[in-house]
């Protein structure tokens, strides 16, 4: 894999840390800026919405530009708004910086996915995708716990400064190492042709699967802390360790999926999808047994991110005639799931169904994904 791919992964690591670190910082932000915890929680929702909307819009704006300048603009904006967020004392300004950060993140990831697959051979898209998405999984393993710990020690603003500091060397390295040329390797089709690709039932079904699987993943991940403390009965000190275990499994899953997807994309998701459904069900049933629950967490991280990464690769293959927007379609689908899953899990909690209920929602979303995949096969489409 080209070294430039790993530099893109470093930037994605900083962005993934920013996206998820607020889970541990919201109470401090609320107290410091004089707003309620629920109001501070809208910072997370704003980021997710910005990611969904930003990916296709940013990709459309950048589609006629070489990949390197676009990546530098997006990462530069991302860095700048984190500095602004660290300095502000106004909640509305902070909210605006989160939206801008999400738009920049979405644009970077959409262009980065296309650039990454353009740097490698046509049959190596899965491995290139794995390197890029590995930055997100490493953020779950190291960046998010570190950001939360830093926020507790030095205040929430220090976590924003840390993200900016990690982004700075990535910005300089991308300027030196990422090829300037178009990610697609040639002239891009017109925007209408690329947008029409989104309407193909085959591609839509894969995007739907990606959203469902990612929704299931983030439904449980978002509420993993209360599951650990209130159902497993473990102390709060176990939460960072369990989150790190999930992230370690996710990293292994993305890495394995990258290699398997290029060799044989089709057989992987049905088998792993069935295992993922069984895993969510097992966690929901065994959450009261700490040893079993903790052992299941990295396995579920591996399966969830492995299936998700394979589906992203499938989107990129299916959207070969939309080289500029294929990555944007994948990014939006993932973030639809990332926004929807926690909402459904929260609704289950608010409905009084208990702290296991988000895991049952994850199982339900995975079962729906299996039904969608089955319908594809019945229509004569290749299994995903």
Overall mean pLDDT stands at 82
Please tally the β strands and state the result.
Answer: 0
Major β-sheet, in short? Answer: none
Q: Level of helix content?
A: over 70%
Query: pLDDT below 50 for ≥5 consecutive residues: which ranges?
Result: none
> CA-to-CA gap between the ends?
25 Å
The number of helical segments is: 15
The succession of helices and strands, N to C, reads HHHHHHHHHHHHHHH
Category from helices, strands and their pairing: mainly alpha
- Percent strand: under 5%
The 3D shape can be described as: globular
Radius of gyration: 20 Å
Question: Secondary-structure map with pairings?
Answer:
Layout: H1 3-21, H2 26-33, H3 37-62, H4 67-87, H5 91-118, H6 125-154, H7 156-177, H8 191-198, H9 201-222, H10 224-231, H11 238-263, H12 268-286, H13 290-318, H14 326-350, H15 357-378
Helix pairs in contact: 1-5, 1-6, 1-7, 2-3, 3-5, 3-14, 4-5, 4-7, 5-6, 5-14, 6-7, 6-11, 6-13, 9-13, 9-14, 9-15, 10-11, 11-13, 12-13, 12-15, 13-14, 14-15
How does this structure look, described?
It is a single chain. The protein has 384 residues and is mainly alpha-helical. Helices cover 82% and strands 0% of the residues. The chain contains 15 helices and no strands. The chain has helices at 3-21, 26-33, 37-62, 67-87, 91-118, 125-154, 156-177, 191-198, 201-222, 224-231, 238-263, 268-286, 290-318, 326-350, 357-378. Helix 3 (37-62) runs parallel beside helix 5 and helix 3 (37-62) runs antiparallel to helix 14 (326-350). The two termini are 25 Å apart.
